[in-house]
Amino acid sequence: MDAEVATIFRHAGGAMSTTISSLDNTGPNVASILGTEGRVEIASTWYSPTSFRHIDKNDRVIEEYSSSVAGRGMQYEAAEMERLVTAGKLSGEIMPANETVSIMQSLDTIRAQIGLRYPNE
Residue 73: what are its φ and ψ, rounded to 5°? Predict the structure, then answer.
């Protein structure tokens, strides 16, 4: 049931965002952030980005950034967790716990709207 999902979010100030995900089809696996003055295109794989392009509203590339990341890029999350545990903190400044909870609530709302229930629920 959740093999393909499309979402539309409304944010403060009237901003909107959309997502499309599919387990059954292969797509470009990129992300784009669109604004009134242009866009930012984040290259594949968007959740472990190594490059992005800033493109103006006339389709000109303003800036291009590229780097390499060893592994899958998750070492940064592990290093942040180590820092928090060592400091005796329960939540970080970069990704506070309330932001994680908010994301999980959004995912729960999506699951409810598409009728997805896991076996243990």
Answer: 85, 0
Cα angle value 21/57/34 (rounded, 5°): 25
State the DSSP H helix or E strand holding residue 66, giving kind and residue range, or none if neither. Answer: strand 61-66
Contact indicator for 77, 69 with CB cutoff of 8 Å? no
Asked whether 52 and 40 are in contact (CB, 8 A), the reply is yes
Domain extents in the chain? 1-71, 74-121
pLDDT in tens, the chain (121 residues): 568 899 999 999 999 999 988 888 888 888 999 999 999 999 887 777 679 999 999 999 999 999 887 777 788 889 999 999 999 999 999 999 999 999 999 999 999 999 998 899 8
What is the model's pTM? 0.70
The CA–CA distances, whole Å, from 21 to 10, 11, 50, 73, 100 equal 18, 20, 21, 21, 20
Distance in angstroms (rounded) separating the CA atoms of residues 107 and 112: 9
